[in-house]
Amino acid sequence: MKTKHLLKRMHKKSLQSKAKCHVVGVGISKRGNVLGIEMSSPVGSRHAPLGHAEWRLMCKYGKALDTIYISRFSKAGNNSCKISACSMCKGLSERLGIKIISLTNEGVNYEQ
Ligand SMILES: [Zn+2]
To answer: Structure pTM?
Structure first.
């Protein structure tokens, strides 16, 4: 999977948000196709997974997913900090057999 290309798409998606920081998740099928891109949104409490990008992908696509890439972007497009799925999302992904991988933009030039 070419994650550099994915990060570009994720960054583009993140620009739709007015929030300072947001998590973008990309769902990849078992064949390696992009099923969908979701953004986190503030739903309920901080600890509820309903607004999490990875949770939304799993609700939408379920077992069709093979891997979910998650990345956290600032407004400037910086996503150098690694994030990890919360225990709720992790629990669900393990039940469904989906890998959740955090991407950072180390060495990625969006202008290319
Ligand atoms: Zn979560």
So the answer is: 0.84
Q: Is residue 55 within 8 Å of residue 36, measured between CB atoms? A: no
Cα–Cα distance for residue pair 112/95, rounded to 1 Å: 38
Ligand 1 centre and the CA of 49: distance in Å? 4
Please tell me the distance between residue 86's alpha carbon and the centre of ligand 1 in angstroms.
4
Which tens digit of pLDDT belongs to each residue from 65-100? 999 999 988 777 677 777 889 999 999 999 999 999
Name residues with Cβ closer than 5 Å to ligand 1, which is an ion. 49, 52, 86, 89
Report CA(56)–ligand 1 centroid distance (Å).
9
Over the stretch 4-22, which tens digit does the pLDDT of each residue have?
Answer: 888 888 888 888 877 666 8
Q: Delineate the domains of the chain, giving CATH numbers in brackets.
A: 3-102 (3.40.140.10)
| Cα dist from 54 to 18, 61, 76, 107, 112, whole Å | 19, 11, 22, 24, 27
Q: Is the Cβ–Cβ distance between 55 and 61 less than 8 Å? A: no
